[in-house]
Design goal:
The N and C termini lie far apart (45 Å). The protein has helices at residues 2-20, 30-37, 41-53, 70-77, 85-88, 90-100, 142-149, 153-160, 171-184, 226-244, and strands at 27-29, 57-60, 65-68, 103-110, 113-120, 135-137, 187-190, 197-205, 211-220. 45% of the residues lie in helices and 21% in strands. It contains ten helices and nine strands. It has 248 residues and is an alpha+beta fold. A hairpin with a 6-residue loop joins strand 7 and strand 8 (197-205). The chain is globular, with a radius of gyration of 21 Å.
Length: 248
């Protein structure tokens, strides 16, 4: 009986691993999914058949490639949308994009990473493309610094003491940046994560006073110069405050 229970749990874990493979792309061939999750093709084939039957994935018969099914969207529609910054903040993000002309993103912290949970793309020909759902390291980038700086003191210290941070990061210097960010109320990054890109970010606080997310504006470094980001910062802070006023 115990072995049967373990087998059931393993099957659930494998099915979830297959679904999580789609965080890195929209569609995959069965062999690509097998490589991603490290399972035999026959096992993945059986799992995909079950997930397809339940509506969690769908298969394009012409290309024989899989993508997420409508059941995923049905589940996401029943999330706590009434207090979801990705839902409530979208109109304000669109207004900010139209005002500043750059891509606007919303990030949450998950452990030692940040996740982009919403994005409004710039209409300009040369722009930052910000795919929703992407995970990024917490030790670099404007929104990363915001997500650390405005955490409670205990969590902040725990994050700064994380042994997984690369040795190239000067923690003492990073702490100084965090202190400055807490004073300014926003953070900037200039070609930190990728060449030619810059961003400015501000925290979103709920009405309970706790940080809910980071609002970020990003674009090419030749447009988002340090001076331009300083000029945009008050506008972004105000937008973050308006989003926060809608949260609990």
């Amino acid at each position: 009986m115990a072995e049967e229970g373990k087998s059931t749990v393993r099957a659930v874990e494998r099915a979830l691993d297959i679904l999580l493979a789609f965080t890195s792309g929209r569609e995959f061939a069965m062999t690509e999914i097998a490589d991603k999750v490290g399972l035999h093709k026959s096992t993945v084939h059986r799992m995909l058949a079950t997930l397809e039957d339940k509506g969690f994935v769908t298969r394009d018969r012409a290309s024989d490639r899989y993508r997420l099914g409508l059941r995923i969207w049905e589940l996401s529609a029943n999330m706590a949308g009434g207090d979801d910054p990705a839902v409530l903040g979208l109109p304000e993000m669109e207004r900010l994009r139209d005002l500043l002309g750059e891509t606007v993103s919303l990030y949450l912290r998950d452990g030692s990473e940040r996740i982009r949970i919403q994005a409004v793309q710039s209409d300009q020909a040369v722009r930052r493309v910000a795919p929703v759902g992407v995970r990024l390291p917490l030790y670099v980038g404007a929104s990363s610094k915001v997500l650390i700086a405005f955490e409670d003191a205990e969590t902040r210290e725990s994050l700064l003491a994380d042994p997984s941070w690369p040795s190239s990061v000067d923690i003492a210097q990073y702490r100084e940046q965090i202190d400055e960010i807490r004073t300014l109320g926003y953070a900037t990054s200039f070609e930190e994560r990728e060449p030619g890109a810059a961003a400015v970010s501000a925290p979103i606080f709920g009405r309970n006073g706790k940080m809910a997310a980071a609002l970020s504006v990003s674009g090419p470094a030749n447009r988002l110069t340090p001076e331009t980001m300083r000029r945009h910062a008050p506008v972004i802070i105000e937008a973050a405050q308006r989003i926060g006023s809608m949260l609990k």
